[in-house]
Design goal:
Elements (H helix, E strand, L loop, with lengths): L6 E5 L2 E7 L1 E2 L2 E2 L10 E6 L7 E8 L1 E4 L7 E2 L3 E4 L7 E2 L7 E7 L7 E3 L2 E3 L2 H13 L21
Antiparallel strand pairs: 1-2, 2-5, 3-4, 6-9, 6-11, 7-8, 7-10, 12-13
Length: 153
């Protein structure tokens, strides 16, 4: 098989060459007796001036290099300037994560509990809104965290 004959799928800035198996709705023309998945992914680069992070949604993966400790669901990995991203899933369960990046705004950041705003006044207003169930927090009265973490102020 020639390189030009390998099936490809492109979606949302991700290109996958499907050498064996199936991905993004594209199936390889190669038949293997034993079910096999051989995928070659290409991800557009995140601009070097952007900040980026990975958030693990499900499963457990190894990010960075094979000697890194596994990262499990609900954990964040901050990427530095120019960092690449290598990922291994050595478990028997699927690994699901998001890669998020953006151009820094250069604005001040004030954080209190789960709230992140630009000024202490905005944090105070948001805390008031949350405690009074207004301005988008109307359903907060009956919300309960699935993580078991409480927001005690």
């Amino acid at each position: 098989m020639l390189s030009k004959d390998i099936a490809e799928a492109i979606k949302d800035g991700i290109k996958v060459r499907v050498i064996a198996g199936e991905a993004l709705g594209t199936k390889s023309p190669i038949y293997t007796r034993t079910p096999t998945m051989y995928l070659d992914f290409t991800l557009k680069p995140i601009p070097i001036s952007w900040n980026a992070f990975v958030y693990v949604l499900e499963g457990e993966g190894i990010f960075g290099n094979t000697k890194s400790s596994p990262t499990s669901a609900h954990h964040v990995l901050l990427l530095g300037t120019g960092d690449g991203l290598e990922v291994w899933n050595k478990s028997s369960k699927p690994l699901r994560f998001v890669l998020i990046g953006g151009e820094p705004l250069g604005e001040p950041v004030v954080q209190f509990g789960p709230f992140v705003m630009n000024t202490q006044e905005e944090i105070d207003q948001t805390t008031d809104d949350f405690e009074n169930y207004v301005n988008g927090f109307e359903k907060a009265r009956h919300w309960r965290s699935e993580t078991g973490i409480s927001l005690d102020y």
